Amino acid sequence: MRFFISFSNLIDSINEKIGQAISWLTLILVLVVCYDVLIRYFLKNSVVAIQEIEWHLFAVIFLISAAYTLKHDRHVRVDVFYAKLSEKKKAWIDFLGSLVFLIPFCFLAIWSSKIFVKLSFNLRETSPDPGGLPARYILKTAIPLGFLLLLLQGISLAIKSLSAITQNPTGKKT
Questions:
Q1: Are 104 and 155 in contact (CB under 8 A)?
Q2: CA of 110: how far to CAs of 60, 73, 126, 141, in Å?
């Protein structure tokens, strides 16, 4: 089990570093939105590329930081019952939820987005809007990358949950 815990810690470390790096995009997004608002409402002008940068940044922040959010247990969850459960029961829910729902869904999302991203790269897809951003295919790469990071974090969660299930509070196996 030590190997799996080490692997889990490696995944956590990777997602922690990526999450912290991606968090800076939030500041950039706020600055871009402020610039867009100033230009649009005070100068009565609008730039398509600026509006596209906004949703490109939001998409990257959302997709790439999903694993970081899961790592810190800040994802959306219905805590009405979960919050009242023992740590072992929570570990069972996290373990089964990871194996039955999260990991298979991530595999499905990666597999199904592969063709979508490949086609976009082959076409060298750009924005269809005049004045839009080039290289939209680079943005679309965030889809399988984000789900790959989420898949890895789901594996880490499953490992930690299994460890919690198989050990008692003193840390000895039951």
A1: no
A2: 16, 22, 22, 10
- Under 8 Å between Cβ of 85 and 148: no
Express each pLDDT in 82-94 by its tens digit: 889 999 999 999 9
- The pLDDT of residue 79 is 76
For residue 19, which of 68, 59, 56, 72 has the smallest C-alpha distance? 68
Instruction: Give CA–CA dist 153/9, Å, rounded.
Output: 10
Helices 48-64, 2-37: inter-axial angle, 10-degree rounding: 160
| Rounded CA separation 82/70 (Å) | 16
Residue 33's nearest CA partner among 67, 13, 61 is 61
| Alpha-carbon 147 to chain mean position | 7
Q: What is the DSSP letter of 85?
A: S
% residues pLDDT > 90 (the chain):
87
